[in-house]
Amino acid sequence: MKKTAHARFVILTLIVILGTDAGAQPVTGVDAIGMTVRDMDRSVEFYSRVLTFEKVSDREVWGDSYEHLEGLFGLRMRVVRMKLGDESIELTEYLAPQGRPIPVDSRSNDHWFQHIAIVVSDMDKAYERLREFKVTHASTGPQRLPDWNKDAAGIKAFYFRDPDGHFLEIISFPPGKGNPRWQKAPCRLFLGIDHTAIVVGNTETSLQFYRDALGLRVAGESENYGPEQEHLNNVFGARLHISGLRATSGPGIEFLEYLAPHDGRSSDTKSNDIACWQTKLIVGNISTAWNALHGPVGTLVSPGPITLPDSSLGFRRGFVVRDPDGHAMLLIEAGSGEIHTH
Questions:
Q1: Full-prediction pTM beyond 0.85?
Q2: Model confidence pLDDT, tens digit, residues 288-298
């Protein structure tokens, strides 16, 4: 997505509003990471049977407030929350209206790309399990990042796809890398979610949105390239600037900026499109967050902070906003329902 004059105006406005007052930065935690699915029962079976997620809740919602929240008329959604370790995903099936499938030629450098990185205790055993269930490869196979790459040396990773074509990653960390809790003696193969990764067009633009406006902190950076990275992403000539951001709690948000190649396509997804992901961010006051993020049409999906009729989705007040590359963020107010924290 190209940086427009409107986008620059939004970001500068956010910095003016929030950058001078650290206390106004709204995000206190990253909650569930959501994705749209075509067949809920099929997706629940995949995530529970193959990846050992556990179902936490199963709700069906509809009505004006949900239409306003998602910017989609006539919707009816089935939302299932699933948990792995301390982290959660939310699967949403739009019973009406149904959106577009993921493009069959999607690549890891397209700007609608997003995945979750599932930490495993043993990469070889995890890959063997995925092969047993005949998952669709997105990488050629598990890759060990080389020792010359100080920030990522020894990390092993593999990309694959779920039944809808969503990219997923399994990742294992050597001693000294990643969150120390991943190094504790594991009793499971699949441990939890370390981060969600998104493709961004420009790291500085995205940092102005996520760091300067929303208050996430930069936890690390690296530049990854070489045959291992090319085969992991399945993109010839891949050279990435990677930045990891964190809130006080929950999974991280990782930027993948492709320094090469530059042929990734921009995103125009809507909430009911299967390619649409939606990351839940917890804020202290939804009205303060709305005032900070208010900008030109096309950035905000909801017409304002939305109050839902009940807390069946774990919150009562929230709104949806899209980042400079079109990734959807659902901001929800702490204390407005039974928010799931980590």
A1: yes
A2: 888 877 654 33
